[in-house]
Design brief:
Blueprint: H1 2-12, H2 18-49, H3 51-68, H4 70-78, H5 85-109
Helix pairs in contact: 1-2, 2-3, 2-4, 3-4
Length: 112
Amino acid sequence: MCRTIFEGWKRYKDYPDARVRERFARDATKLRTVYTAALWAMARHFRNVNQSVSEQIRGLRSEIEEEFGVVARMAASRSGAVIDDATRRAQTRRWMDLRAADHHGAAELGII
């Protein structure tokens, strides 16, 4: 998926129609932030499982970082950062709120 989005960006980033450029720019925003971080995590996971796949993922991430520069590099490096306690507590509260809302909705529907 990341490769496909990246190839689309490279092909259409300079397209004459502004609507086409804007669409690929929106996709590229995710590519240079979230997906770059995901590629970092995938390469790390596959490093011990399948070295060849890990290298392919790292290669794609390197291409993306070359294209988008510092933003993509920062996204990839932050994906390995330790989450502080306040952030972890906030994420846990949100997860528990969502779980409670799901439970309440299921009870109203008679599912549980």
